[in-house]
């Protein structure tokens, strides 16, 4: 593997992402206080589309966009920045959520706190987004 700046940035971002999966990402109140682990949010977050939480499912789309961006960046595709920017926007939008929709009937659970899993996930996405923008800008200056 060539030690290009893009590959190093991808590696650092993935390390942060995988560390985030070992942490609690959110604490919410749903009959009792729930410490929701990040790996569950990653694995089953897409189910919110069918479980009543459409907007939460939209936020989960930051994950496939992140991996598409990583793949394109690894392949040196100039369009890698676009899915990464979209992923960053979706990940940042979650900061504005006050509740989670838990059922199709609309039952909600108030968010008590965002934990380290969320912030590490956000950091991994923002790191690779800004790295890809920086690499694109410096590539144009050097060309």
UniProtKB/TrEMBL annotation:
Record's keyword terms, sorted: Membrane, Transmembrane, Transmembrane helix
Transmembrane segments: 7-31, 51-73, 80-97, 117-135
Entry superkingdom: Bacteria
Protein name: Uncharacterized protein
High-level lineage: Bacteria, Pseudomonadati, Bacteroidota, Flavobacteriia, Flavobacteriales
